[in-house]
Amino acid sequence: MNAIAFTGVSKSYGPVRAVEGLDLTIDAGSTVALLGPNGAGKSTSIGMLLGLVRPSAGEIRVFGDSPDTAVKQGRVGAMLQDGTLVPGLTVREVVSFIRGLYPDPMPLEEILALAGLTDLAGRRADRLSGGQAQRVRFAIAIAGAPRLLVLDEPTAAMDVESRRSFWGSMREYAATGRTILFATHYLEEADENADRVIVVARGRVVADGTPNEIKAAVGTGTVRFTIGDQPTAGLDALPGVTGVEIRGSVAQLRTTSPDATVQALYATGLRVTDLEVRGADLEEAFLSLTHDN
């Protein structure tokens, strides 16, 4: 059974079409990143998945049931961008209260440990830093031991160390066979942590595959080398080159055909040292895929 299935799902706000005929399935046990520029329909799609927003057309199923049913049965947990924590209560009290709402919650101490909150359990929830508050929201999201965990910009306000710790916890949670769907603007997080990347623009899917497949589909790469004080005229005319950037003694060529570019580069007679050839990273692929959408 699929964890998530969107069939012909659309959502309009007056004349604005936020989601356009979305067909999408996500296998149980996978970790999927949902990427897209602002206004692409990510948050609307997540809202519909959680039963917070009603689609204008189409059908959504979560483990074969409606979103409302799946959420009520505790099979879905969510960590959204916004949400004020209950003032006056400690972290332990907040998490304990939330887990008491579910039929088969995760043990309290396990929740606190997984969210990195054991040492903060006695602190008031309204006296935490932004990153610490995000960890509490994560703890609330997993309190019911959901089979599907939905995260919308989960590491916003976290510092580098907190982000690293968070994704370590997330991988640990996913390793138990749970399904993770997360939206993020940190593309390196998607590259490092997702089994699958779905890119949306203008309410529809424009790319879907593993991180490596998404990057390969763009068909661009970079050739970087030390050129020193040699002339740079003509580098933009090499086969496949679509852009040239010179920084001090280093030249960087963006190309649609790295092999052809390198072969022609050596034929120019230039002294090429410290040559580095790489494919597009996920950020470059994302920008290319969404630029015209």
Give a quick rundown of the structure.
With 293 residues, this protein is of the alpha/beta class.
Describe the protein's architecture and organization.
With 293 residues, the chain is of the alpha/beta class. The protein has 2 domains: 2-209, Rossmann fold, CATH 3.40.50; 218-290, 2-Layer Sandwich (Alpha-Beta Plaits), CATH 3.30.70. Helix content is 31%, strand content 30%. It has helices spanning 42-49, 67-72, 91-99, 108-114, 130-142, 160-174, 187-193, 211-218, 258-267, 282-290, and strands at 2-13, 16-27, 31-35, 57-62, 76-79, 148-152, 179-183, 196-201, 204-209, 221-226, 241-247, 250-255, 273-279. The strands form 3 sheets. The protein has a 6-stranded mixed beta sheet, sandwiched between helices. Strands 11-12-10-13 form a 4-stranded antiparallel beta sheet, with helices on one face. The mean pLDDT is 91.
